[in-house]
Amino acid sequence: MVGVTVARAPARSHPARFDHTTHADLKCVSCHTTPVSLDPSVETLRCAACHDDHHAAGRRCAVCHTELGAEMRSAHAPPADAHVACDACHQPAIVAQLVPDRSLCLTCHAAQRDHHATQECTLCHFQSPPGEYQVHLRRAGAGS
Prior knowledge:
Elements: E1 2-4, E2 12-14, H1 42-45, H2 48-51, H3 61-64, H4 69-75, H5 92-97, H6 102-108, H7 121-125, H8 130-133
Antiparallel strand pairs: 1-2
């Protein structure tokens, strides 16, 4: 479980999938540091020890954020539009770094992974390339 906090909302726990094969190049004891039990450290459990800047541009969101579609949709239930003004709830500094590329879209829309797999989703669905659609992720008048 990973703690998730969003502005103006109570903190909640979120199940996080951990794939040891992704981390195969690390020695076990680089994460499992507690003497005797070899439990992971608190920083390791939060993933922040190595992935503090995981919202950086160019990161493939859907690699870790899989099977969140139903949860994301329930968190963004109507009348909220999950495709605009993300910084109304999420940290503006993080949202400013997000690019609505195919990887970000697949975070919620994993079932469409093979749908025009070589194309960026925003080209058809929002009539603009990801870099141009990025401004819609911020509230109107919230800076550039």
